[in-house]
Amino acid sequence: SAESEAWQKGVIYAEGQNLARYLMEAPANYITPIKFAEHIEQKLRSFSNVKVHIRPESWIATQQMGAFLSVAKGSAEPPIFLEIHYLGGANTNDPPLVFVGKG
After folding, report:
1. Rounded Cα distance, 1 and 18, in Å
2. Rounded to the nearest 5 degrees, what angle is found at the Cα of 60, between the Cα atoms of 51 and 39?
3. How far apart are the C-alpha atoms of 79 and 56, rounded to whole Å?
């Protein structure tokens, strides 16, 4: 029914919002870059149309991401570059939608 679908949609939005709050409010010494990446990978694992790549410091250096590495030197934790690919768009010819964030 339409009500059931609307309810389920609301549950999905609420779960996403709660995940965002958890990641935002957790202390930085608890949600380290690798823990963050692993948590996201675990959450998205069940989706066949989503691929997650956890890129280590060596990959970041190979990509010549100097500014990213420079900022990461301010932390005792090694940097991680999290790359998420969504493969479920209606039209495969559409340009990708890209989000870039730095925590």
Report:
1. 26
2. 40
3. 7
Tell whether the torsion through CA atoms of 11, 17, 21 and 23 is positive or negative.
Answer: positive
The amino acid sitting at 79 is P
Report DSSP state, residue 14.
H
Kindly tell me the sign of the dihedral angle through the C-alpha atoms of 94, 17, 50, 79: positive
Which tokens belong to 8?
């389920």
- DSSP-assigned states of every residue in 39-101: HHHHHHTT-TTEEEEEE-HHHHHHTT-HHHHHHHTTSSSPP-EEEEEE---S-TTSPPP----
Tens-digit pLDDT profile for the chain (103 aa)?
Answer: 899 999 999 999 999 999 999 988 999 889 999 999 999 999 999 999 899 999 999 999 999 999 999 999 988 999 999 999 888 878 888 887 777 766 5
* Most distant pair of Cα atoms in the chain: their distance: 53
